[in-house]
Structures are given as structure tokens and as C-alpha cells.
């Protein structure tokens, strides 16, 4: 019998989540219990008509039965089991995949538990170093854990929040915030709707802050160093905090966010989402993106926002029936630290380690402000088309250091013809494809010259008399 897709295991997971026995669900679907049993064990395919009936009977979105985030969840689990903690008995790759498909909620709990363990371990190491170096020991920081929880929260929602989109459209229709002078319009809206007065203040008066809101005096202060687009974004962010306060509170009660830090960070992230939706209204922005073939510079100018804001907004265009290109986005600093990541496709980005050094986001620093194009292929065979560029954070003055980041924005190769950046590129040329991995510890590519650590998939065999393409790459006789 030919191997079928693991839809049966997903049907079983959905059934168990609904609290139904096989017999009870089979009766509702008007099929025999034995036939449903064969489907759940992937010994019979799931017909489209039966899939639609299942979604209707259980009142499910078809996405809940589809592949969803299982590949990404399996990748997260693989990172977990790459920990030296499991070095003696790591599970096989197919066992990890089956775990992610069969009991996804338990799999997510394992990932979250390991994440908490990693954060606690890092905090313990930091604390030990502080005890040795000094006596005034501050509290342990859990910022890393909080940011990963928010990333998981966004991923569960596919980085799309219809309620915030609808409220942004309602505010936009008010008319106050439309027109060429968007800054003045947003200031008028804040004063009219919330009694908030906006002031642009000198750097010395802001004590290092870019934006500061005094809730008692209802005064919003912005630093003079913010450029036009950034000023508008900070105003729109404040509108989101005030206009959607109840909705933000409701969203961050999600079980994914387990700490006060993650809930506060979640509110900030969602207010930023609202700001982007207000400055780049969904339908207008999607229409412009499609018409201009996702030309990032043109979209910046038209909506008076910066490169990073355009890239992030493109990752949120997942409205049912009106989806844009499903992009991923990742932002790094010059040390390779990942400070932002959003995905709406099958890309696998590391949760605990650094990005593959062959990704174009690292090479962007070699030519600041220039756009770099890359076709890459992950070990599991998915090919991506991406563009990368550096961005500079505003300098407040002569004594403030210049901060440089790099952003990579990418999509699966089949969407590349919709992007202006694919013009003149032979997308089918295998020689143009760069083989990339998730992290060195998980990557199976043994002949990689950029490998920094051995793969957990292969034992480390070192021959002092022979050197391969890298220290960890094997050689043949």
C-alpha cells in the first residue's frame, strides 16, 4: 500500500480533543467505526468530502485539521532533543515528527518546559558569575523566555489579528487620521478621542526615552530625534494602547503567556501590530503590494513608513480569502543575535541557537544598504527566495553609537515570480541554490564549510592526520 500523508493522525488528535470515541464520531460522519479506524491509522486516505463533513460536524476551521504548524513544531522538538541533556538516548527523527502530529499540545508543552529549563539554567549561570564578581545581585532576568512565549503566541495566531485590523480600519474611516499630514491627524485624534496632548521634546528632556506617556496628565512626549515615519508609528502605537486596551487585555490572557513579563510584552507587540494596521490599512496595503510586485522601497514611500515596518506588515497579510504572499522575516544584529522573527510559511528558524551562517541576512552587513537576493534550500527540501538588507537605528547625537541590524524577508520559491526582485533570475537553476540549515547542531549537511559545531545526527570522529572542508566535516579515503 502506498504511503499516505499523516492526515489520519491529525483526525485522531482532533477527535480526542473533542472528547469523542471512534464510534461516536463515525456515527456523526455516517461511516463505519472500522473505516474511521483505518483512516486514523493512515491505512486509508481521507476523502475531501469526508474532510469537509468532519469540519462541519466538529465546527472546525479546515486549518485545524491541516498541516498547520506541525513542521515547525517538529523542528522545535528536534532542537529540544539536540540538547546534551538527551545525548545518551535522543529520539529518532520519525519519532519526533509523529509526536508533533499525534499530540501537538503535549509536544508544545515539552518545548515550553525545555525553554523554561534553558532560561533557568542560563539564569543560574549568570547568578553564579555575579556571586563570584560582586555582592549586589539583581533579580534573575526572564526576558528571553518572555520573548519566545510571545513569538509562540504570534505563531499560534499566524501573526494575524482580525479584531485589531477591524478597529484600525474603523479609526481610519473616522477621517481624522487621513490626509497628507498624518502626524497632525493622529495628534488631533488622540486629543479628540482620549484627551491626550502630544509634545515633541528635546533629547535632554526625555532621559533616554524615545516616547513617554504620562497617564495622569494625559501627555504624550516624543523625542525630537524620531523621524517622521517613526513619530507617526509611535502616535499610532499610543492610539492602539488606548483604543484597544480591553482587547489587548483579553488577548494576553492566552495560556501561552505564563508570566507578567510575557503578558506586558504581548500587549506591546499587539499595540505595535495595531499601529502598523492603522498606518498601512489592510486592503490598501495588499493592493499596493500586489500592484507593485512587493517593491519594498515603493511601499515605504507610499505609506510613509520604514523598511522594517513594511517587512513586518507583509508578514501579517493572512486574512482569509485575501492573503498576500506568505512571508517569513528575521532580524539580527552584527553578532548574529535574532531579535525578531515572524513566519507564515514552512521556514524553520532556530529557537535556541543562532541562524545558519550561510543565510543572506549575515552577508547583508558586507554591503550595508544594498539588497541581497538568495535562493536557499532547507535540509527537508523546501526552497525559499529571500531578500536581505541592513537598517540603521536613529542616532540621537554625536555620542550615541550607530546601531546596525539586518533583515531577511523570504517566501517559498513558488511565490517568487510575484516579487519584483525575481526579475532576470533563473529560479530553476540548481547551481543558484544555497543549502542552508536550521542550526549546526541539527543540520545534516556534513560537507558544509561553514559548520561551527558537529551535528548530533553524526558522531564526531576526528583524525589528527586528515582535515576536511571544515574541522567537523568527514573525509573519505
UniProtKB/TrEMBL annotation:
SMART domains: HTH_XRE. Gene3D superfamilies: lambda repressor-like DNA-binding domains. Keywords: DNA-binding, Transcription, Transcription regulation. It holds the Pfam family ScfRs. It comes from Eiseniibacteriota bacterium. This is DUF2083 domain-containing protein. Residues 11-65 form the HTH cro/C1-type domain. It comes from the Bacteria. Transmembrane segments: none annotated. InterPro entries: Cro/C1-type_HTH, HTH_RamB, IrrE_HExxH, Lambda_DNA-bd_dom_sf, ScfR_C, TransReg_Diox_bact_type. GO terms for cellular component: cytosol. PANTHER family: HTH-TYPE TRANSCRIPTIONAL REGULATOR, HTH-TYPE TRANSCRIPTIONAL REGULATOR SUTR. GO terms for molecular function: DNA binding; DNA-binding transcription factor activity. PROSITE patterns: HTH_CROC1. Belongs to the short-chain fatty acyl-CoA assimilation regulator (ScfR) family.
Amino acid at each position: 500500500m502506498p504511503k499516505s500523508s499523516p492526515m489520519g493522525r491529525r483526525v485522531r488528535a482532533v477527535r480526542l480533543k473533542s472528547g469523542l470515541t471512534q464510534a461516536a464520531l463515525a456515527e456523526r460522519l455516517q461511516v463505519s467505526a472500522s473505516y474511521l479506524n483505518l483512516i486514523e491509522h493512515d491505512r486509508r486516505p481521507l476523502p475531501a468530502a469526508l474532510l469537509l463533513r468532519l469540519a462541519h460536524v466538529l465546527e472546525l476551521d479546515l486549518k485545524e485539521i491541516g498541516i498547520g504548524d506541525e513542521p515547525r513544531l517538529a523542528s522545535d522538538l528536534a532542537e529540544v532533543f539536540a540538547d546534551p541533556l538527551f545525548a545518551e538516548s535522543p529520539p529518532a527523527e520519525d519519532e519526533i515528527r509523529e509526536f508533533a502530529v499525534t499530540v501537538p499540545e503535549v509536544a508544545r508543552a515539552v518545548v515550553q518546559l525545555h525553554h523554561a529549563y534553558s532560561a533557568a539554567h542560563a539564569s543560574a549561570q549568570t547568578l553564579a558569575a555575579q556571586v563570584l564578581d560582586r555582592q549586589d545581585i539583581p533579580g534573575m532576568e526572564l526576558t528571553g523566555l518572555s520573548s519566545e512565549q510571545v513569538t509562540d503566541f504570534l505563531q499560534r495566531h499566524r501573526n494575524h489579528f482580525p479584531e485589531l485590523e477591524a478597529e484600525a480600519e474603523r479609526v481610519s474611516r473616522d477621517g481624522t487620521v487621513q490626509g497628507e499630514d498624518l502626524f497632525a491627524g493622529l495628534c488631533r485624534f488622540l486629543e479628540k478621542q482620549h484627551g491626550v496632548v502630544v509634545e515633541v521634546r528635546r533629547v535632554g528632556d526625555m532621559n533616554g526615552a524615545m516616547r513617554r506617556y504620562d497617564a495622569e496628565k494625559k501627555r504624550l512626549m516624543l523625542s525630537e530625534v524620531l523621524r517622521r515615519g517613526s513619530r507617526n508609528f509611535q502616535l499610532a502605537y499610543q492610539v492602539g494602547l488606548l483604543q484597544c486596551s480591553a482587547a489587548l487585555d483579553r488577548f494576553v490572557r492566552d495560556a501561552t503567556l505564563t508570566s507578567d513579563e510575557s503578558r506586558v510584552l504581548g500587549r506591546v507587540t499587539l499595540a505595535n501590530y495595531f499601529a502598523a494596521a492603522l498606518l498601512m490599512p489592510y486592503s490598501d496595503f495588499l493592493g499596493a503590494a500586489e500592484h507593485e510586485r512587493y517593491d519594498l522601497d515603493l511601499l515605504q514611500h507610499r505609506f510613509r513608513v520604514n523598511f522594517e515596518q513594511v517587512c513586518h506588515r507583509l508578514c501579517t497579510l493572512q486574512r482569509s480569502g485575501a492573503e498576500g504572499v506568505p512571508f517569513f522575516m528575521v532580524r539580527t544584529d552584527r553578532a548574529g543575535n535574532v531579535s525578531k522573527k515572524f513566519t507564515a510559511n514552512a521556514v524553520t528558524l532556530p529557537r535556541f541557537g543562532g541562524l545558519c551562517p550561510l543565510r543572506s541576512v549575515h552577508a547583508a552587513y558586507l554591503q550595508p544598504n544594498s539588497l541581497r537576493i538568495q535562493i536557499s534550500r532547507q535540509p527537508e527540501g523546501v526552497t525559499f527566495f529571500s531578500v536581505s538588507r541592513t537598517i540603521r537605528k536613529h542616532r540621537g547625537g554625536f555620542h550615541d553609537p550607530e546601531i546596525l541590524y539586518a533583515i531577511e524577508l523570504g517566501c517559498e520559491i513558488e511565490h517568487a515570480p510575484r516579487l519584483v526582485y525575481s526579475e532576470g533570475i533563473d529560479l530553476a537553476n540548481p547551481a543558484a541554490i544555497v543549502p542552508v540549515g536550521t542550526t549546526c547542531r541539527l543540520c545534516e549537511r556534513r560537507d558544509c564549510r561553514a559548520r561551527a559545531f558537529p551535528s548530533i545526527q553524526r558522531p564526531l570522529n576526528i583524525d589528527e592526520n586528515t582535515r576536511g572542508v571544515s574541522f567537523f566535516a568527514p573525509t573519505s579515503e
